[in-house]
Design brief:
Helices cover about 70% and strands about 0% of the residues.
């Protein structure tokens, strides 16, 4: 396939886009929870294999290896593979490796294969808006948990807030019935965050709202609209237990805040003992009890909670303790690379058009630049890299950046 500027010289197959859309749908919609017989055929794995073959046949391996994000992801996977040599539980490493490979191929490579035109981007934006509604409805219906592939109440809240900016800005950019879908998605997202009751998710959601406020030209109107939404949530969704739980967030001496600080401290100790490569990918929960025993925290007067099998509840502490300084530096450069691409998108002067497709790049920029700060804040309090959000963000940013280059005629994609 050859692209030059915004003009397509050859007919482009829609199959990569269709498969990519179905893959995202199978992850976020929860369809496998309701149609369990589909698990037998493993539709997600079939999508990944198909997208990988399409990518390879199109020369993607030679072309896309130059992308810095892809190189860093390959290094990340290599570090996980090296962990097999010294990990306490190699089964966990293998499971984590499977997750990293599947999401890298399905969501990062899949984005590169699927997004070739603005029309492709519009299809993905529409699906993300619909998925935001579906995820939020399930969280509210289930009393705080969503689709099984998105984890518990803490993890699923991260997905809600990553999808939320797409429905918020969709309420302004979308047209027809999709505009109403996005408006409903905004209200449902707020309700889902409240029902889930995740403190870390709540702080990430506040960060996302802060970015929306900074990007807004109507700050006063947005402030009063936000206050009205909060009043509605308080009246209909927020329980006394939720208010009491949120009111204790600053108390670091009791409850979950104390447990998090304690687990973070153990993670720092692991890093100090293994500063280069850490204790191994996914190994925090299989090493932490040794540190608790050495400190005498499992018996006597202290009697701390046994943390065996658990994560540190912080992506950054997990990376520091499990992958050492190499993993943390790699994460820093990955975030910086994504930030630079988004900053470039933000510099573009997009003309406002009555045609939704012409506004898709601006819509994507505002949504993704809002979602990422919320995600990064959530990652302080939640282990997020086991779930698809990070991989989807990376894939979409790289693919849309390349789409912009195609539109400007600064690159050719074969």
């Amino acid at each position: 396939m050859q692209y030059s500027g915004s003009r397509v010289n050859k007919v482009v197959s829609n199959w990569p886009l269709r498969i990519f859309l179905f893959f995202i749908f199978s992850i976020y919609s929860g369809v496998l929870d309701y149609l369990s017989f589909l698990r037998v055929v493993k539709p997600g794995m079939l999508c990944v294999l198909t997208l990988s073959v399409m990518w390879f046949r199109a020369g993607g391996l030679k072309r896309d290896i130059t992308e810095p994000e892809l190189r860093m992801i390959l290094i990340l996977i290599f570090i996980s593979m090296v962990s097999l040599l010294y990990a306490a539980n190699t089964g966990v490493v293998i499971k984590l490796l499977q997750t990293e490979i599947i999401y890298s191929l399905g969501l990062i490579i899949g984005s590169m294969v699927a997004i070739k035109t603005k029309k492709d981007l519009v299809s993905i934006l529409n699906l993300i808006a619909c998925l935001s509604v579906l995820v939020s409805v399930q969280v509210i219906q289930n009393g705080g948990t969503g689709p099984s592939l998105l984890g518990d109440e803490n993890d699923v809240t991260v997905s809600v807030l990553v999808l939320f900016p797409f429905v918020y800005y969709g309420a302004f950019f979308q047209v027809g019935y999709m505009k109403w879908v996005c408006r409903a998605g905004v209200l449902l997202s707020v309700g889902a965050v409240v029902v889930a009751g995740s403190r870390g998710g709540f702080l990430g959601f506040v960060a996302a709202l802060g970015m929306i406020y900074l990007n807004s030209n109507r700050k006063v109107l947005l402030f009063f609209a936000g206050m009205a939404a909060i009043c509605i949530a308080v009246a209909f969704l927020i329980s006394d237990d939720y208010i009491e739980d949120m009111s204790t967030m600053q108390n670091t001496e009791t409850g979950t805040a104390d447990e998090r600080l304690y687990s973070w401290g153990l993670g720092v100790e692991m890093f100090l003992d293994n500063p280069i490569l850490g204790v191994g990918a996914g190994q925090y929960g299989w090493v932490v009890y040794h540190y608790q025993e050495e400190r005498g925290d499992l018996d006597g007067a202290v009697h701390r909670l046994h943390l065996g099998g658990r994560s540190s509840h912080s992506t950054y502490i997990d990376y520091l303790s499990e992958r050492g300084i190499v993993g943390l530096v790699l994460m820093f450069f990955l975030i910086r690379s994504i930030y630079r691409r988004i900053k470039t998108l933000g510099r573009e002067k997009f003309n406002v058009s009555p045609v939704f497709e012409d506004n898709s790049l601006r819509y994507f920029y505002l949504a993704i630049s809002t979602a990422i700060p919320g995600y990064l804040v959530c990652s302080v309090f939640v282990t997020t890299f086991y779930y698809p959000n990070m991989w989807l963000i990376i894939g979409l940013v790289v693919a849309v950046y390349r789409l912009l280059e195609i539109e400007q005629g600064t690159t050719n994609v074969e």
